[in-house]
Amino acid sequence: MAESLTESVMAGLADGTASFEYVDTTEAPSFSLPFASISSAFSGSRPKQSLFFARIGLGRGAGQARQGTSQALKKVEHFTVRRVAGDGRCMFRALVQGMALNKGMNLNATEEEKEADQLRFAVMDAICRSDKRRSLYEEALIAITVEESLKRYCQRIPSSNFWGGESELLVLSRMCSQPITVYIPESEAKQGARWGTGYIPIAEYGGEFTKPSKDRKARKPVRLLYNGSNHYDLLI
């Protein structure tokens, strides 16, 4: 199977041919570099000064030195890893378990699987059922169609081993009014060095929901750990 966009980005971060950068859109940046992750910055209710893209800058070769140090790579945080089953539902499992823990609940394995599938079905309904609903998640559609046709995506998502990632996080952060931050291990980010026990945030979704509004209370973020290849766990 061809290497996915996420896998190629992670490989670039590990070997030093890519760097991660948060971009403040208040300065109207020119997106001359490919970008990998998009926050929920398309929400019309979010103040302009807080908008950002999470952007990946690609180097010219494996031996090229980094030009400066990314601000994101300086921010190392420490959490406990809560492992989830690697059955294809891992991203959905980690997300439902994180949302439950934020409410003081703890899902057992059966509940976790059921709720994870419900999240997948919710994404399928939002993206594949009607043009009207789909139009609410334009940024997710962009992420989907970078790699495959919408038709093919909608054929795959009913499967229980459908692997969730960028597109689904864009939908679910907005649908559930849930802030989500994705991390990678410190050792993965720093040119593959075998040291460092912390975790580095690489993408944020639904950041506007961390603040209260007249319609809702502030929400605690769910922190997901991406292992660099094909699995998500939960950070608590």
Automatic annotation (TrEMBL):
GO terms for biological process: endoplasmic reticulum unfolded protein response; ERAD pathway; protein deubiquitination. It is found in: Cytoplasm. It catalyses: Thiol-dependent hydrolysis of ester, thioester, amide, peptide and isopeptide bonds formed by the C-terminal Gly of ubiquitin (a 76-residue protein attached to proteins as an intracellular targeting signal). One of its GO terms (molecular function) is cysteine-type deubiquitinase activity. Pfam families: OTU. Residues 79-236 form the OTU domain. Keywords: Cytoplasm, Hydrolase, Protease, Thiol protease, Ubl conjugation pathway. Its EC number is 3.4.19.12. It is an enzyme of class 3 (hydrolase). CDD domains: OTU_plant_OTU3-like (cd22759). GO terms for cellular component: cytosol; nucleus. SUPFAM superfamilies: Cysteine proteinases. Hydrolase that can remove conjugated ubiquitin from proteins and may therefore play an important regulatory role at the level of protein turnover by preventing degradation. This is Ubiquitin thioesterase OTU. It comes from Ceratodon purpureus. The lineage of its organism: Eukaryota, Viridiplantae, Streptophyta, Embryophyta, Bryophyta.
